[in-house]
Amino acid sequence: MSRKTEYNNRYNKEHYDRINMFMPKGYKEQIKSKADELEIGLSEYIFTLICNDLSGVSANISDQKQGLDDDGLALLKKWQVAKRYIEMIENVSYTTGNYYIQLKAGYINDVTGSREIHAKNSSEIRVVVTKSHK
């Protein structure tokens, strides 16, 4: 095994949990089709659904992709997110104790492994968003 593969395996083991799922035949293609429609990966789609459920967000993922408006910019300013990260952000939302950021297509966050960032407070958002890049 190459050094890069060993490093990647070690990094993934230290930073991610693995969940294997079984479902009836045919569902995987339906789920993948929906993820493709939203222009996100299968894992990111499932992860987002689970995070939304855990945080009490009931909106559809497609409804959350609304773009960054003045209210979103105001939230980012309130959370003290550095200006250099704002260009990466497509959408933000907040419910009591749940902070959510969706990165634009082409960007990824190393902590979550996806375009989605969920946090419990603004200081956590400020730390996690710094791990975002193209």
Concise overview:
This protein has 134 residues and is an alpha+beta fold. The protein is built from seven helices and five strands; from the N terminus they run H-H-H-H-H-H-E-E-E-E-H-E. A three-stranded antiparallel beta sheet has the order 1-2-4, sandwiched between helices.
Explain the overall architecture.
The chain has 134 residues and is an alpha+beta fold. The protein has one domain (3-133). Helix content is 47%, strand content 16%. The chain contains seven helices and five strands, in the order ααααααββββαβ. The protein has a three-stranded antiparallel beta sheet with strand order 1-2-4, sandwiched between helices. The protein has a two-stranded antiparallel sheet with strand order 3-5. Strand 1 (89-95) and strand 2 (98-103) form a beta hairpin. The model has no long low-confidence stretch (mean pLDDT 84).
The biggest beta sheet reads: 3 strands, antiparallel
For the biggest β-sheet, the strand order reads: 1-2-4
Strand content: 15-25%
What is the H/E string? HHHHHHEEEEHE
Q: What spatial form do the alpha-carbon principal axes imply?
A: globular
Cα gyration radius (Å): 16 Å
Total number of beta strands: 5
Instruction: Compute the number of helices.
Output: 7
Find the structural class using helix and strand composition.
alpha+beta
What is the distance, rounded to the nearest whole angstrom, between the alpha carbons of the first and last residues?
27 Å
Give the % helix.
Answer: 40-55%
